[in-house]
């Protein structure tokens, strides 16, 4: 049996480029254009009107994290995500020190269009539940 060593995370969304650019800001990812093109605009010009903007992708510039792929779908988000990303900024921290790091990251992400939902904090462990620019849940952890 083969061992899977690489995977990508796929997001269904209405505006692939907008959501992808949000996640680039969150994670420090980059969005190189498809092979053979100097820019995403040059690539989009080769697509039919119907296909234009139907997908977008970004990658971890260090090559460690998974590729993120964003595809346009006709239906909107209707229920809570069954899968979500945890943005791990407080690893190894506890209590007020952890909470301060999470709050700082939350503030940074609000500037990119994220929405804060709620803080989960028990005095030691904490995370902040947020939503991306299309309402997909994620946690600052």
What can you see in these coordinates?
- The chain has helices spanning 16-27, 40-45, 95-110, and strands at residues 8-13, 55-58, 67-72, 86-87, 115-121, 126-131, 137-140.
- By secondary structure, the protein is an alpha/beta fold.
- The protein folds into two domains: 8-72, no CATH class; 86-140, no CATH class.
- It is globular, with a radius of gyration of 17 Å.
> Secondary-structure element order, as H and E?
EHHEEEHEEE
Main sheet record: 4 strands, mixed
Number of distinct helices: 3
In total, how many domains does the architecture comprise?
2
Unreliable sequence segments: none
Q: What percent strand?
A: 15-25%
Shape: globular
How would the blueprint of this fold be written?
Layout: E1 8-13, H1 16-27, H2 40-45, E2 55-58, E3 67-72, E4 86-87, H3 95-110, E5 115-121, E6 126-131, E7 137-140
Parallel strand pairs: 1-3, 4-7
Antiparallel strand pairs: 2-3, 5-6, 6-7
Quick summary:
The protein is of the alpha/beta class. The protein is built from three helices and seven strands. The protein folds into two domains: 65 residues, no CATH class; 55 residues, no CATH class.
Features:
single chain; 141 residues; alpha/beta; four-stranded mixed beta sheet; three-stranded mixed beta sheet; 7 strands; 25% strand; globular
